[in-house]
């Protein structure tokens, strides 16, 4: 099974998700989108499947530091441009496996996805 987890190396939620995968013997590839970037095709696919409000991390400090005028009336196009420019605005982790997309980390959801 191919598992790819996307996020930022030093994020606490990422550390929890990666620890869960390792504890349950789930092999995965890690893509640090702060170091390696992310492409528009991934963002489009994630938003199509999970929705913009799920993929865009509005609670993070990077998003909250944006001017109010930028944060209001945010279209899909503007949000994608922001996430491409500043990947820390993408919710983490994003996990792709066997046609499934998991955004964020909850142990029970991972357990269900991996039959653990």
From TrEMBL:
PROSITE patterns: ARSC (PS51353). Pfam families: ArsC (PF03960). It comes from the Bacteria. InterPro entries: Arsenate_reductase-like, Thioredoxin-like_sf, Tscrpt_reg_Spx/MgsR. Belongs to the ArsC family. This is ArsC family reductase.
């Amino acid at each position: 099974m191919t598992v790819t987890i996307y996020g930022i190396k030093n994020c606490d939620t990422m550390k929890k998700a990666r620890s869960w995968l390792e504890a349950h013997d789930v092999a995965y590839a890690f893509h640090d989108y702060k170091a390696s970037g992310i492409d528009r095709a991934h963002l489009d696919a994630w938003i199509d499947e999970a929705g913009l409000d799920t993929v865009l991390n509005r609670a993070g400090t990077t998003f909250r530091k944006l001017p109010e005028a930028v944060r209001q009336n945010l279209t899909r196009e503007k949000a994608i441009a922001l996430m491409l420019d500043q990947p820390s605005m993408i919710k983490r982790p994003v996990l792709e496996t066997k046609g499934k997309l998991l955004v964020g980390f909850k142990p029970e959801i991972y357990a269900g996805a991996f039959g653990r």
